[in-house]
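In practice, a research group might receive sequence data for several interacting partners and want a quick structural hypothesis before committing to experiments. The following worked case mirrors that situation: the sequences arrive first, and a predicted assembly follows.
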Amino acid sequence: MVAQNIGFAIIAIIMVIGALRVVTTSNVVHAALWLVVVLAGVAAQYILLAAEFVAITQVLVYIGAVMVLFLFGTMLTRSRIGVNSGLNNSYAKLGIPVAVVLFATMALALSESFGTEKMPTDGSLVSTQQISDQIFGPYLLPFWALSFVLLAAVIGAIVLARKD
Amino acid sequence: MLVNQFLFLAALLFCIGVYGVVARKNAVLVLMSIELILNAVNLNFVAFALHNGNADGHTFALYIIAIAAAEVGVGLGLVLLIFRNRRTISLDDLSEMKG
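A structural hypothesis for the assembly, expressed as tokens:
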């Protein structure tokens, strides 16, 4: 139990530092690389939450595919590799109170409703078989919708990015 | 492990992502901040799946990962198109629809 909490704390600190660097760094490529740190941290938290299938999917899809897309997007839009000071809005300072107030509201609501409630430790873990039973059972309709969305996204991306 | 430690981490990630969406001008960086927000939501889903002891949260986390991949693909396609037509991806310059 203590080891889990220490692991959580280390990963959480790394994730928060990475997330802050993503939104404050002045270099687009560095932001993409810090995003890898955050996404890997989220995958580690999934493993801590006994969701190994979701963690593997996170690594494959996010760190594998989405990051390559981001790096290609950075490269193709030639947003000046290197230090680039023109990345923030003129009203960027306004984002700080927005984020702080939002977090204060959420923190208040969470501590009111969950307090010191603990995760169950009696070993009612979810297996990958259960996830597949869910996907191909009660959640089949959203799965179909999702496959159409992916098809439309693939065709849409090709149509948008094609030179004609 | 408390339930709240995961929910607080997710809330913090969400707020950092919201700050990124508000403060950034570069369209690619705004998309990255949206990824932060989606990951915070996913963390909540998986935490509640463990809390409630069923697989619904895992299923929806997987669906959200797939939707996020589609969203990034289309979003970067749009950014590429805007860059090709306007030679800029600064969101401040796209103000034709301002009333």
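Before designing any experiment, note the following. Helices of chain A lie at 2-24, 28-48, 52-76, 95-113, 128-135, 140-161. The CA atoms of residues 6 and 12 of chain A lie 10 Å apart.
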